[in-house]
Amino acid sequence: MSNSSPLPNESISTSSPERDADTYRRLLRTIKQPAQFLSFWIAIALPFVHVPLLAQGLNDPTVTMTFLTLLAINVLALYFGHGYNESS
């Protein structure tokens, strides 16, 4: 009796942990450069948004929370973007 599947059995296999790890590493390498680029430039641009908030004053709780949120985003962007464009 012949196999009715159009694909040979060798092509249908379960994924191995090594293949999954290679796929994961390849995905990380693909995402790393654009993520560092974006984080780097966000870290550069956000302080220009802080200045008007500070000039306005932090008396209003909404302005204070906005400033603190932007400050936290800036710290994260500095962390993730710090290695952008370094020669390897």
TrEMBL record:
<dbReference type="InterPro" id="IPR058341">
    <property type="entry name" value="DUF8028"/>
</dbReference>
<protein>
    <submittedName>
        <fullName>Uncharacterized protein</fullName>
    </submittedName>
</protein>
<keyword id="KW-0472">Membrane</keyword>
<feature type="region of interest" description="Disordered">
    <location>
        <begin position="1"/>
        <end position="20"/>
    </location>
</feature>
<feature type="transmembrane region" description="Helical">
    <location>
        <begin position="61"/>
        <end position="81"/>
    </location>
</feature>
<feature type="transmembrane region" description="Helical">
    <location>
        <begin position="35"/>
        <end position="55"/>
    </location>
</feature>
<keyword id="KW-0812">Transmembrane</keyword>
<dbReference type="Pfam" id="PF26071">
    <property type="entry name" value="DUF8028"/>
</dbReference>
<keyword id="KW-1133">Transmembrane helix</keyword>
<feature type="compositionally biased region" description="Polar residues">
    <location>
        <begin position="1"/>
        <end position="16"/>
    </location>
</feature>
